[in-house]
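Quick check before the chapter quiz. The format below is the same one you will see on the exam, so make sure you can read both the input and the output lines.
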Amino acid sequence: MSEAICIIPARMASSRFPGKPLAPILGLPMILHVLERCRRAEGLERAVVATCDAEIFDAVTAYGGEAVMTADTHPGCVDRTEEAIDVLAPDLAPDALVVMVQGDEILVTSDMVARVVSRYREHPAPVVNLASRIADIADHDDPNRVKVVCAPDGRALCFSRAPIPSRFRSDDVPMFQQTGVIGFSAGFLKQFGRLDRTPLEIAEQIDMMRTLEHGYEVQMVFTDHATFGVDTPADLARAEAVLAADGFTQDYLRGNHG
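Here is the expected output.
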């Protein structure tokens, strides 16, 4: 199997939380937490931040991390990831794995990333996406959390901002949310941007629906660890409380960089 590279797209512009990649958490900018947590994952050759903002690039490289500048015109993080690969590894084999971890996935762990890598090597689907268990019904109802339902073999059937599966009959249903930890075969990553946007993708504002609507497989892997992207300052405070109690965080905050 060819190599595996992690790309962490991040940008300063955000309608709900401008500048969030550099927002401090326990004294370290958020983007550096995500970088530290990704680059320790087993099976990765490198982890690189992809950004259109000099402030983020400078913060990462001053810290000793790797970053690449991309255009500021990309409509989404997948497009930014594709450009980063074009710059960093233009000759990457089609069956190589590109793991995209969104720069606000602050609770990602190296084990989560490693699960995506391992599943792709067992079952090289075009896309392998991590889902985390939802424990709080309020999160299930929150349209900012993208929910996913799957077939028994792990194939994603649908992503939605609505609470799926329905709790109409019972609150005791398996509830999972999509995370921004998504592995692409390098060949499909190049193809994704050429696919036409699809009706459910547009309605839900979920780019993985484009993959499903065009008939491509998305394999899901699961974690029972709670995780969420940081969309608001309230999310940041919630994440900081979790990280403060996490021994993994304390390890790299003490200077044990991966």
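If your answer matched, good. Residues 4-250 form a domain with the Spore Coat Polysaccharide Biosynthesis Protein SpsA; Chain A fold (CATH 3.90.550.10).
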